[in-house]
Amino acid sequence: MNNDPELNGKYLGTISQDFIKVADTLKEASYQIRKADFEFPIFAISKTELPIGQLLIPRAPMNLTWNYYASFLDEFVQRELVAKDKEDDFKKTYKDPDEFCCLFVIDDEFANFVYIPFPED
User: Fold this and answer.
1) Domain spans in the chain, listed from the N-terminal domain onward
2) How far apart are CA 57 and CA 44, in angstroms?
3) By the 8 A CB rule, do 67 and 49 touch?
4) How does strand 100-107 pair with strand 41-46?
5) How many CB atoms are located within 10 Å of the residue 11 CB?
6) Which of 56, 62, 81, 89 could form a disulfide with 70 if both were Cys (CB 3.0 to 4.6 A apart)?
7) Looking at residue 40, what DSSP letter applies?
8) Is 118:96 a contact under the CB 8 Å cutoff?
9) How many whole angstroms separate alpha carbon 44 and alpha carbon 103?
10) Is pLDDT larger for residue 10 or for residue 103?
């Protein structure tokens, strides 16, 4: 899997279309994850099933492009998706989870972290 430095335009469009529909659910899930003392919520998204986190929003019932899985940084470190020696770097660049949703986009040869701002109330 290659990590592209820029989010490909085709991903940004489909992610944005889905995000409008799921943003409130993801924001609440992020809050609940942090309330349970798990830091740095991450939502893995993929068009296929993933062994990361727990399926939060399946794509079929809501006619979405992506499946959404709820997870957090510790799992990503345990699965070596974030290298142990890069954990502090990740924490430094992690954006405020009350304002931004951290997505880990996985599709074929593409895998990358993306931060999308939650819509303002």
Assistant:
1) 9-117
2) 11
3) yes
4) parallel
5) 20
6) 56
7) S
8) no
9) 6
10) 103
Query: Amino acid identity, residue 90?
Result: F
- What is the sign of the dihedral through the CA atoms of 114, 44, 47 and 18? negative
- Segments in 5-108 forming alpha helices (H): 9-35, 73-78, 87-93
Residues 47 and 107 sit within 8 Å (Cβ to Cβ): yes
pTM, to two decimals: 0.90
Gap between the Cα atoms of 65 and 85, Å rounded: 33
Query: pLDDT tens, 38-86?
Result: 999 999 999 999 999 999 999 999 999 999 999 999 999 999 999 999 9
Q: What percent of the residues of the chain are helix, what percent strand, and what percent coil, each to the nearest 5?
A: 35, 25, 35
- Model pLDDT, residue 3: 42
Measured between alpha carbons, how far is 113 from 102 in angstroms, rounded to an integer? 7
